[in-house]
Design brief:
homodimer; alpha/beta; Dihydrofolate Reductase, subunit A; nine-stranded mixed sheet; two-stranded antiparallel sheet; 5 helices; 11 strands; 17% helix; 27% strand; globular; DHFR-like_dom_sf (chains A, B); RibDG_C (chains A, B); Dihydrofolate reductase family protein (chains A, B); Riboflavin_Biosynth_HTPR (chains A, B)
């Protein structure tokens, strides 16, 4: 069965998954790289940057779940580009010529454009669709594999609120951002549909996983 | 040196330390007892209720730090009573004839009343004062011991914002309350003044401690 999975969305202790003041120069606004420093301290994260070394513990094990079993990603417009990218016909996303997805990626936007094929197997498709319709399209493209709900926080929240997420991995980083976009707004009682586990690691973060009750069977 | 300590404030994963709809019948509003179930699963918590049994692990170790070394508590009006307790001259707090504090307790309120001496060493004093002035009064009463900043969340936040807290122990409970009173509002960058540790336990909660940088020396 093809699952919808949210993989490592990092939030501050006060619940913000991105900061304030997003721009071309500041993809996470005033949060900078603080929410994701734990990723780039792992062997997997350093490998992404072409570097050796890094931790091989629990943080590394979690980030290595990013790709296996995933056949497509859905992301919000804000994960594809800076506010205003719609105005730039040449913009091909934050992710360089060979994006780290290596699958079809469905970008939710009210201003769709033609698909863009990148190196390494990533193709960006642009959809103006509801969460359920986008998930159906991504499932079709995923060929029986899982679909990653890639964020940002507003997109993840929309899929959670629609009851479409089977598995979620949230990482709580012990900083207080004070402002930005919250992951949890409007999700009262979400935990009742999931088995929830928490594990803190020596890097200081806490991994919280949500597994839809019964979906492990 | 006398420290100001926040001891086990429990918050939901979305940051609420109390629910919505506080009343005489519902001290934590719609949160009910869910934020504190972990306390009453420990040996210490069960002992408070005159029961045997309970867990003896990390959760128990943390709750046992409640009383040792504390010479006075400061609490907000909402921790002393339901909305409207000011109207009831006979109200002596949520805590029964022998409250679990066993020290002087300073209740911050804009409508002070005469002190109330309870059984077991607890005396409630009522103060209309700034956080700094209240802490000075509590320190005086604590006779060189530490002062517990007892909450609720608005009171803890006021003391944190004023830079008066030396040590804080927050417990993140993996539920989403959706509404209520947030602990973290307006505390951007708080972590920069503290060494922060996180540890998750088998009960599912995560203990987060803030120790003022340099105060361990």
């Amino acid at each position: 069965m093809s699952l919808a999975r949210v993989q490592h969305i990092s939030i501050s202790l006060d619940g913000f998954a991105t900061g304030e003041g997003l721009s071309h120069e500041a993809p996470f606004g005033h949060a900078g790289e603080r929410l994701h420093a734990w990723v780039f301290a792992t062997r997997w994260g350093r490998g992404l940057q072409g570097k050796a070394g890094g931790s091989g513990g629990v943080d590394d094990a979690f980030v290595r779940m990013f790709a296996p079993g995933i056949g497509a990603e859905i992301m919000g417009a804000g994960k594809f580009g800076y506010p205003g990218w719609h105005e730039g016909p040449e913009w091909k996303g934050w992710w360089g010529p060979n994006p780290p997805f290596h699958t079809p990626v469905f970008v939710l936007t009210h201003r769709p454009r033609p698909s863009i094929e990148m190196e390494g197997g990533t193709t960006f498709h642009f959809l103006d669709a509801s969460p359920a319709a986008a998930l159906a399209a991504a499932r079709e493209a995923a060929g029986g594999l899982d679909v990653r709900i890639g964020g940002g926080p507003s997109t993840a929240r929309d899929f959670l609120a629609a009851g479409l997420v089977d598995h979620m991995h949230v990482v709580v980083v012990p900083i207080l951002l004070g402002r930005g976009v919250r992951l949890w707004d409007g999700l009262e009682g979400l935990e009742q549909d999931y088995d929830v586990e928490s594990v803190s690691t020596p890097s200081g973060v806490t991994h919280v996983t949500f597994t839809r009750t019964g979906s492990a069977g």
